[in-house]
């Protein structure tokens, strides 16, 4: 298992149009319940229309042992969404992704969609389980979108944005 390294990275702060207006440490952003920072999320979908849904490790600072999107992470200060996506996919899933193989399926904002941050959400088609980082995830499930929501309604703990994203992006699945 990889060593857990806790960092307090710098995040760009953005205005309502997603334009950078400053930067602040991640700890400050969370301590002050800010939502004007950027994140990336990725859903891996297989040929059967199932999403690869991992469970976060117990060591995670926020939402430990909760169900999560296939991959998610902060856009660090100075990065764009795509650079963060490539970096996070490598860190969390040991995937060397080519941005051309991944489709951006949504650009969401806290004010318009009720999500935790400004985010771009991507989708990747893949039928194999990624070699995920054991420091990030403990187990996983292949679930159709409706099954994800049923588990959460039944009491399964999940990262706050997961049911919102599934409802927004896969409403008829």
Written account of the structure:
This protein has 173 residues and is an alpha+beta fold. It has a single domain (10-169), classed as Nucleoside Triphosphate Pyrophosphohydrolase (Alpha-Beta Complex), CATH 3.90.79.10. It contains five helices and eight strands; from the N terminus they run E-E-H-E-E-E-H-E-H-E-E-H-H. The strands form three sheets. It has a four-stranded mixed sheet. It has a two-stranded antiparallel sheet with strand order 1-2. The model is unreliable at 1-5 (pLDDT under 50).
Write the layout of secondary structure elements.
Layout: E1 10-14, E2 20-25, H1 26-31, E3 38-45, E4 51-56, E5 71-74, H2 81-93, E6 103-108, H3 110-113, E7 118-125, E8 137-143, H4 145-153, H5 161-169
Parallel strand pairs: 3-7
Antiparallel strand pairs: 1-2, 3-5, 4-8, 6-7
